[in-house]
């Protein structure tokens, strides 16, 4: 089965940038939609951004204008470019791929820490 592996997290100062990558072990065309979620300690997992197979994107209000989701089908990779990072962006970021209405895949997560 297709697996997702995230990378690119780390420690950055407020105002800095990071780019997260999510590589699928198979073709990302297996997924109808792909998305990035995040979960901070004590909080529920929340949607950050999503992208359809056709390339349409959707963003949570709290990242609009700062984050950009994109996909490279040739590399079976989805990216999340994060600019103007804030301390409140600190969380574990997870990649998600929707296979069908009942099934999705999650990556293991990558930690993003933004210092003030």
Can you give a write-up of this model?
The chain starts with a strand and ends with a strand. The protein has 116 residues and is mainly β. The radius of gyration is 13 Å and the shape is globular. The strands form two sheets. Strands 2, 4, 5, 6, 9, 10 and 11 form a seven-stranded mixed beta sheet that branches. It is built from no helices and eleven strands. It has strands spanning 4-7, 10-13, 18-24, 33-39, 46-52, 57-59, 67-72, 77-82, 91-100, 103-106, 110-115. Strand 5 (46-52) and strand 6 form a beta hairpin.
Residue share in β-strands: over 45%
As residue ranges, the low-confidence spans are: none
| Main structural class | mainly beta
Which geometry do the CA atoms define? globular
Assign a percent range to the helix content: under 10%
Mean pLDDT: 95
**Beta strand count:** 11
H/E series: EEEEEEEEEEE
Largest sheet entry: 7 strands, mixed
């Amino acid at each position: 089965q297709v697996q997702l592996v995230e990378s690119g997290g780390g420690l950055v100062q407020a105002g800095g940038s990071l780019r997260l990558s999510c590589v699928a072990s198979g073709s990302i065309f297996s997924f109808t939609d792909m998305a990035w979620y995040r979960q901070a300690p004590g909080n529920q997992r929340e949607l950050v951004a999503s992208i359809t197979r056709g390339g349409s994107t959707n963003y949570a209000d709290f990242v609009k204008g700062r984050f950009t989701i994109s996909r490279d089908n040739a590399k079976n990779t989805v990216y999340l470019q994060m600019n103007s990072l804030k301390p409140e962006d600190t969380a574990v970021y997870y990649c998600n791929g929707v296979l069908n209405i009942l099934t999705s895949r999650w990556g293991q997560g990558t930690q993003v820490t933004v210092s003030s």
